[in-house]
Specification:
Helix content: 25-40%
Strand order of the largest sheet: 1-2-3-4-11-5-10-9-8-7-6
CATH topology of the largest domain: Aminopeptidase
Distance between the termini: 25 Å
CATH superfamily of the largest domain: Gcn5-related N-acetyltransferase (GNAT)
């Protein structure tokens, strides 16, 4: 992930923190701590979150996170674990996914499309706060990672972002309207972001998949490379 206007980014030996303007969540990854550093790092991250518009921060742990008892130490430092959003599969795709006929899927191009995408995401997840028109316009102005959408019968059916890196694209924020589920919109959205990654010369997609999206991604050729355990802090 690269530095950009509207993004708060800290990369160090202990962790990587990233937050984009207007997003509800921030993220901490690459966690390599010593036992006596946990409380200090939690305080550092809280201060970084306070510089953003976000209210919640996800801490992503893997079998490579240190120390061995880092999860217990983070919980003791005030983080929370939500069992229904705890285990996630880190998945990778390096082969071309299938084309989906009859569905338009592309990067959104206007503020109006962006506002519709934000509304679809709120309805799909049910936990994202409502935004004013001015807040949505400001987020669109500061958008770092492009949002893609798929349309069925002229209606926006699925949305998702892509963070383009030097080695591929990381997919986030995938959401499909209830009326459109099972009709290929999400698959078309994956294909659109694959095509965008190929155009950049980095034909690979990575994603952190929950239990709803993992079976779909497996059918598209994604394979699990490790497992995330998600903890959360709020402010």
């Amino acid at each position: 992930m690269e530095a950009a206007p509207g993004r708060v980014l800290r990369l160090c030996e202990e962790y990587a923190f990233a937050a984009d303007f207007g997003h509800t969540f921030t993220a901490v990854e690459g966690i390599r701590l010593r036992g006596d550093d946990v409380e200090r790092v939690v305080a550092e991250v809280d201060a970084l979150v306070a510089r953003t518009t976000a209210q919640r921060c996800s801490w992503w742990l893997t079998e490579r996170s240190t120390p061995a008892d880092v999860e217990e130490r983070l919980l003791a430092a005030g983080l929370a674990r939500h069992e229904d959003d705890y285990l996630h599969a880190a998945m990778l795709l390096t082969t071309e996914p299938p084309q989906v006929d009859g569905i338009e899927a592309r990067q959104i191009a206007t503020l109006e499309e962006f506002a519709e995408a934000r509304q679809l995401t709120r309805e799909a997840f049910g936990s994202i706060p409502a935004q004013t028109a001015a807040e949505i316009a400001a987020e669109w102005e500061h958008e770092v990672d492009p949002t893609f959408a798929a349309w069925l019968d002229g209606r926006m059916a699925s949305v998702g972002r892509a963070t383009f890196t030097r080695v591929g694209a990381y997919l986030t924020g995938g959401a499909t309207a209830r009326w459109a589920r099972g009709r290929g919109a999400y698959r078309a959205l994956v294909r659109a972001r694959w095509d965008a990654a190929v155009e950049r010369g980095t034909p690979a997609l990575a994603v952190g998949a929950g239990p709803m999206s993992r079976p779909i991604l497996e059918r598209l050729g994604f394979v699990q490379v490790l497992q995330y355990r998600r903890l959360e802090s709020t402010r």
